[in-house]
Amino acid sequence: TETGEEVYRERLPGKVSGGKGKPIYASPVLADGKLYCVTRLAGTFVIEAAPTFKVLAHNKLAKDDSQFNATPAISGNALYLRSDDALYRIEQ
Q1: Edge-to-edge, what's the strand order for the sheet holding 44-48?
Q2: Distance in angstroms (rounded) separating the CA atoms of residues 26 and 36
Q3: DSSP code of 45?
Q4: Quick one: 41 exposed, middle or buried, by C-beta within 10 A (0-12, 13-18, 19+)?
Q5: What is the Cα–Cα distance from 39 to 25, expressed in whole angstroms?
Q6: I need a labelling partner for 31 at 20 to 30 A (CA). Which of 80, 81, 84, 91 fits?
Q7: Looking at 32-70, which runs of residues are DSSP E strands?
Q8: CA separation, residue 27 to residues 12, 62, 92 (Å)
Q9: Over its length of 92 residues, how does the chain's per-residue pLDDT go in tens digits?
Q10: Long-range contacts made by residues 58-67, C-beta under 8 angstroms, separation at least 24?
């Protein structure tokens, strides 16, 4: 909200952590009315940026089992994700 008031507090579904440390290091980013939350090992959750919690999608890059620690970047219609092994550009 504009006041900074907490709207809801929810946990991401499923097993998000997968090892030592926190399950999420990256900050969520907002684009096109959606929050993109990148976990270290469990993929990226897409959450509707609305007053109620709703997971729209959960995606994982199948061939990359390394950690994703970086906050995603957005440029135009592209989402950039960086793992310990690669940099990915995802665009429709």
Answers
A1: 29-31, 34-38, 44-48, 55-59
A2: 10
A3: E
A4: middle
A5: 7
A6: 84
A7: 34-38, 44-48, 55-59
A8: 14, 22, 23
A9: 578 888 889 888 877 766 566 788 999 999 999 999 999 989 999 999 999 999 999 999 989 999 999 999 999 999 999 999 999 999 98
A10: 58/13, 58/14, 61/88, 64/88, 65/41, 67/40, 67/41
**DSSP tally for the chain: helices H, then strands E:** 0, 7
Beta strands in the chain (DSSP E): 29-31, 34-38, 44-48, 55-59, 73-75, 78-82, 87-91
What is the Cα 39 distance to its own chain's centre?
6
Q: Strands 78-82 and 87-91: what pairing?
A: antiparallel
Tell me the pairing of strands 78-82 and 44-48. unpaired
Q: Do 64 and 85 meet the contact criterion of CB atoms below 8 Å apart?
A: yes
